[in-house]
Design brief:
Elements: E1 2-7, H1 17-30, E2 34-38, H2 47-58, E3 64-67, H3 78-83, E4 100-102, E5 105-109, E6 125-126, H4 129-140, E7 147-151, E8 167-168, H5 170-179, E9 184-187, E10 194-198, E11 205-209, E12 223-230, E13 233-240, H6 246-249
Parallel strand pairs: 1-2, 2-3, 5-7, 6-8, 7-9, 9-11
Antiparallel strand pairs: 1-12, 4-5, 10-11, 12-13
């Protein structure tokens, strides 16, 4: 059995310290084979937030792979966003988009963030041709019969809706991953856990989303996914401080727009430089 802890949306700067400490205890006591982090380490990509996130991640003392989320691209510095977007995460650069390999299992990254897009809301996902090609090339080098898990920040498609384009290129990517026999795509971004099977032209693909370990909760409390892989079969246990049953922690579909509406008084970044800013959740 391979055991993986899947976490997402830590949002240092608005992190939930109790939830993070609880997760640390789970890692220390249960020693999973790896921790998979699917993006949004920070709230506003500030240097201090990345420093705190890196300190926390380095202290986990197990193999880790990290995806970058839309909140991890500089919000208030256009030069840094376009020319040095990951400079503040250099301490754990070796962990970013890192493939992890276990006997019969591989975790392969897929980048879904973009420095800029041809739409106003840059917080949403975009799977570029280059990013997809890189992921598919990595998959194609794996031995036959490998159970493949793909990690990304944004869910690749919505449930039963296409008009809102949550992730551009997501449907094409999901079909290509299905054709490669990918067992599941693990993501974050929506701050609620889910476990869905999505049909594609190449067959169904399982989509597994992790909740948040921050104060920015949506419909469920802070949580993480405890994944067990045995003979290619994946089971998911959504764990939380309140010990609420998994079935009650999972949303039944992926929202067409995962961001809450803007509210009066929210900070505004330079026009065209960043996505709309989420309001804090109380």
């Amino acid at each position: 059995m391979t055991r993986l802890f899947h976490i997402s949306d830590l949002h240092f700067g608005l992190e939930d310290r109790a939830a993070l400490a609880w997760f640390e205890d789970c890692v220390r006591g249960e020693r999973p084979d790896a921790v998979l982090i699917t993006g949004d380490l920070t709230m506003r990509a500030r240097t201090s937030e990345f420093a705190a996130a890196c300190d926390w991640i380095e202290a986990l003392d197990v193999p880790v792979t990290v995806e970058v989320g839309n909140h991890d691209l500089p919000y208030f510095n256009p030069f840094a966003r376009f020319f040095r977007p990951y400079a503040r995460i250099h301490r754990i650069e070796r962990l970013v988009e890192r493939e992890l390999d276990f006997p019969g299992i591989a975790v392969v990254p897929l980048k879904t963030t973009a420095r800029a897009q041809w739409r106003f809301d840059w917080s949403k996902g975009w799977v570029t041709r280059r990013a997809l090609a890189k992921t598919l090339a990595a998959i194609d080098t794996l031995p036959p019969a490998t159970t493949i898990l793909v990690t990304a920040h944004h869910p690749l498609v919505e449930a039963d809706t296409k008009s809102r384009a949550l992730t551009r290129g997501g449907e094409v990517a999901l079909t290509a991953l299905a054709a490669r026999g990918v067992a599941a795509v693990l993501t974050g971004h929506v701050h609620d856990a889910f476990d869905l099977s999505k049909p594609t032209a190449a067959g169904p693909v399982r989509m597994i989303g992790a909740g948040t370990l921050s104060q920015r909760i949506r419909s469920t409390p802070p949580s993480f996914n405890d994944l067990r892989v045995v003979d290619g079969q994946i089971t998911v246990d959504v764990r939380n401080l309140g010990e609420i049953p998994t079935i009650q922690m999972q949303i039944t579909d992926i929202p067409p727009d995962a961001l809450p509406p803007r509210e009066p008084g929210d900070p505004v970044a330079p026009v065209g430089a960043v996505p709309p800013v989420d309001p804090p959740v109380h």
